[in-house]
C-alpha cells in the first residue's frame, strides 16, 4: 500500500483509509458489530493502517467499535477522529434531525466551545481506548464559536499530548484562511468523487497552494458509483440516502449509463466500478488519501485493492468525460 505524507505533518497515510462512518449504524440503517470488527482487521492486514471515525457516527458507537478492533494493534494504526457535532447537548447551530434505526429520532448541533472540545476529546479517548489521537479534526464549521476559541482548545490538547495534529473538515478556503491565523492545521477532509467535484473550484487549489493534506470522503458517492445502486433499490428511512436528490431514480439511471461507458477500463484493470472510482480520486493532484467504508472483511479487502489500480492519462480523461455533467 502506497503511503503519502499528510500536509506538513509527520503522518504517512495509506492512500486508502478505512472510513468508519457506516459501522456506527446511524445514517446507514444499522450495522453488524462483529462484521465491522472483521472489516477493520482485514483493512489493517491489507495495508490500510489508518482509520477515520467521529463521535456522531452512531453516537459514540463507531469509536467504541474501532477501539475494540484495534486493541492489541494500536501501534499498527493511525487514528483520526473529530469534534464539533454534539447530540447530547442543545447548544449551537441545529445540524440535523434524522430517524435512527430503532425508530427514534436523533438531533445534532454544531458546537465548538473550548469546554466542549476538551470534553469531546476525553470522551473519544475513552471510547477508543487510546492515549493520543493522531489527527483531531473539526467535523464541520459553525458561525457560533470563533476560531480563536476553537484553536486555543485544540492547541491545549496538543500541548497535553492528547492529540498529535489538527485538521478541519468541510472547510472552505476562506474558513481555512481564518483558522490558520490562530494555529497550524495540516489537512482538510472533504467530499470528492466523480459526480461531486465542487472542491476543484476552491478547497482543492487552496490546499495544494498551502501544502495541506486532502482527505477525500465519499469517493464512491456512498455507493452510487459502484453500479450496485440500481433504479429499483429501496433505502430505509434511517438511511441517509433515502431523501437526498443525488440518489433520485433519474440520477441513478444516468450514473449506471456512465459506468457502462467506462466498463472497458474496469475490465482492463480487472477491477470493480467502485475500485475504479476510488482510483480516479487517488490520481487527482493534491489528494492524500481516500476514505472508504466497509461493512465486512471482503469489502475492506476490495477497497484496499483500489490503491493498486494505476490509470493512464487517457483513461483518466475517458472516465471524467463519461461522468461530466450527468447529475441533474
Shape: globular
By oligomeric state, this entry counts as: single chain
Largest sheet: 8 strands, parallel, barrel
Radius of gyration: 19 Å
Tally of helical runs: 10
Averaged pLDDT: 95
Class of secondary structure makeup: alpha/beta
What does this structure look like?
It is a single chain. 35% of the residues lie in helices and 19% in strands. It has 328 residues and is of the alpha/beta class. Strands 3-4-5-9-10-11-12-13 form an 8-stranded parallel β-barrel, surrounded by 6 helices. A hairpin with a 6-residue loop joins β1 and β2 (12-14). The longest helix is centred in the C-terminal third of the chain and has 20 residues, at 249-268. It is globular and about 55 Å long. The relative contact order is 0.15. The model has no long low-confidence stretch (mean pLDDT 95).
Short overview:
This protein has helices at residues 33-45, 61-70, 114-128, 147-159, 173-179, 203-209, 249-268, 273-282, 297-305, 313-323; strands at 3-5, 12-14, 16-19, 50-52, 78-83, 85-86, 93-99, 105-110, 133-138, 163-169, 187-191, 213-217, 289-293. The relative contact order is 0.15. It has 328 residues and is an alpha/beta fold.
Amino acid at each position: 500500500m502506497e503511503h503519502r505524507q499528510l500536509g506538513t505533518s509527520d503522518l504517512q497515510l495509506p492512500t486508502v483509509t478505512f472510513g468508519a462512518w457506516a459501522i456506527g449504524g446511524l445514517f446507514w440503517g444499522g450495522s453488524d458489530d462483529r462484521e465491522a470488527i472483521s472489516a477493520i482487521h482485514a483493512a489493517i492486514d491489507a495495508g490500510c493502517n489508518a482509520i477515520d471515525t467521529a463521535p456522531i457516527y452512531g453516537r459514540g458507537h463507531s469509536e467504541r467499535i474501532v477501539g475494540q478492533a484495534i486493541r492489541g494493534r494500536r501501534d499498527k494504526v493511525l487514528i483520526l477522529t473529530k469534534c464539533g457535532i454534539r447530540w447530547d447537548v442543545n447548544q449551537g447551530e441545529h445540524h440535523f434531525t434524522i430517524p435512527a434505526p430503532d425508530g427514534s429520532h436523533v438531533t445534532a448541533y454544531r458546537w465548538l466551545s473550548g469546554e466542549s472540545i476538551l470534553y469531546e476529546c476525553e470522551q473519544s479517548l475513552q471510547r477508543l481506548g487510546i492515549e493520543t489521537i493522531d489527527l483531531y479534526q473539526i467535523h464541520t464549521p459553525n458561525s457560533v464559536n470563533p476560531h480563536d476559541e476553537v484553536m486555543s482548545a485544540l492547541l491545549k490538547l496538543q500541548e497535553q499530548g492528547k492529540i498529535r495534529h489538527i485538521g478541519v473538515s468541510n472547510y472552505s478556503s476562506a474558513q481555512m484562511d481564518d483558522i490558520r491565523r490562530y494555529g497550524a492545521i495540516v489537512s482538510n477532509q472533504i467530499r470528492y468523487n466523480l459526480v461531486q467535484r465542487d472542491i476543484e473550484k476552491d478547497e482543492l487549489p487552496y490546499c495544494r497552494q498551502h501544502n495541506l493534506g486532502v482527505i477525500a470522503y465519499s469517493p464512491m458517492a456512498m455507493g452510487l458509483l459502484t453500479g450496485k445502486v440500481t433504479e429499483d433499490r429501496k433505502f430505509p428511512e434511517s438511511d441517509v440516502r433515502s431523501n437526498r436528490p443525488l440518489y433520485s431514480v433519474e440520477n441513478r439511471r444516468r450514473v449506471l449509463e456512465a459506468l457502462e461507458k467506462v466498463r472497458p477500463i474496469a475490465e482492463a484493470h480487472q477491477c470493480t466500478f467502485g475500485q475504479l472510482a476510488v482510483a480516479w480520486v487517488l490520481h487527482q493532484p493534491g489528494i492524500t488519501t481516500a476514505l472508504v467504508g466497509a461493512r465486512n472483511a471482503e469489502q475492506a479487502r476490495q477497497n484496499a485493492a483500489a490503491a493498486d489500480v494505476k490509470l493512464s492519462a487517457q483513461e483518466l480523461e475517458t472516465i471524467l468525460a463519461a461522468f461530466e455533467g450527468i447529475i441533474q
